[in-house]
Amino acid sequence: MNFHVLTLFPEMIEYGLNTSITGRAIEKGQINLNTVNIRDFSENKHLKVDDYPYGGGAGMVMQAPPIYGAYKSIIEMINIDNSDKKYTKTDQRPRVIYLTPQGEVFHQKKAEEFSKEEDLIFLCGHYEGIDERVLEMIVTDNISIGDYVLTGGELPAMVLMDAISRLVPGVLNNDVSAEFESFQDNLLEYPQYTRPEEFMGKKVPEVLLSGHHGNIEKWRREQSILRTAERRPDLLEKAEMSDKEKDWIKS
Ligand code: ADE
């Protein structure tokens, strides 16, 4: 998986991703991280990359030429040079994800979809936005990480890269752990416990010490369903459950 990031703050992305599990995946070459500083493509002698909005209004707008130049440099690097064409289904070029509160809200299924790509380009905006013309030319996916407004697209890009990385084969030590987790089947994960067996008077549920795998599985399924009903009832509508399991919620 090759992540390319168009940003004014490459050090933020590098610091964030070269840590923990994603850092190890980068070291092992399972993920490549290529940050491109948009400012390096400024056509202005003061390296300016923004200007006042046409029509007036507050704030500054990121200009099209440096962003397009930075984008082209990535396309040339990965040698898929048909970027002058507007995107159509038959075009072969990497997806360009623009992080914006105006995008589709990110979810696990989207992470799975993106994890199948070989190259992903993330475009991080700042200030009041980006000149619409360059967005029309290069962006294939508008993605939001939730209904709130951040100061820039770097944190959302890191959120996506983290969620996508852990789905890349080999990145998690234990492949099974990406399979049985929250949002699998639209259910939240069951609670986990580890040693000590008793902590400040609170004991680990007896069934988990029993060694009876059938009972443990049943208990975990029940906990998943009850937890989802309590915390995320909206998810439960999409979850597949037997009539007996539906009764667990009522009782
Ligand atoms: N940029 C600013 N706010 C954002 C959000 N909520 N999601 C994605 N990108 C953003």
Number of domains: 2
Number of strands: 9
- Main sheet makeup: 5 strands, parallel
Walk across the major sheet and give the strand order: 2-1-6-5-7
Could you state the CATH homologous superfamily of the largest domain? Answer: SPOUT methyltransferase, trefoil knot domain
Question: CATH first level of the largest domain: which class?
Answer: Alpha Beta
Describe the fold and architecture.
The protein has 251 residues and is of the alpha/beta class. The protein folds into two domains: 2-165, SPOUT methyltransferase, trefoil knot domain (Alpha/beta knot); 180-250, Trp Operon Repressor, Chain A, CATH 1.10.1270.20. Helices cover 37% and strands 16% of the residues. It has helices at 10-17, 20-27, 64-77, 108-115, 132-138, 154-165, 175-179, 213-231, 233-236, 243-250; strands at 2-7, 32-37, 50-51, 61-62, 95-105, 119-123, 141-144, 198-199, 202-203. The strands form three sheets. Strands 2-1-6-5-7 form a five-stranded parallel β-sheet, sandwiched between helices. A two-stranded antiparallel sheet has the order 3-4. A two-stranded antiparallel ribbon has the order 8-9. The longest helix has 19 residues, at 213-231. The protein binds adenine. Residues 99-101, 144-146, 148-150, 153, 156 line the site of adenine. Adenine (ADE) is lined by residues 99-101, 144-146, 148-150, 153, 156. It comes from Mobilisporobacter senegalensis. It is found in: Cytoplasm.
